[in-house]
Please model this.
Amino acid sequence: MIKKYTKCRFCNDNSLEINYKNVDLLKQFISDIGKILPRKVTKVCLKHQRKLSTEIKRAREIALLPFVSDFYK
Ligand SMILES: [Zn+2]
Model:
């Protein structure tokens, strides 16, 4: 089939590193209110989506990214 559409942007570009310190990158995968965007929106593969959510949660813990709600603070 059309192979390039099945691959996510992280699979296509090895220079993109999913890291909690890479806030600018992580911000592209959260919504305006700070929720992690679903895979059908981001087109990221399952492996990288898991990694993304782990790193986003880590970034939230050290306050690099906002929580969904202030309730949890
Ligand atoms: Zn991937």
Q: What stands out?
A: Residues 3-72 form a domain with the 30s Ribosomal Protein S18 fold (CATH 4.10.640.10). The longest helix spans residues 46-61.
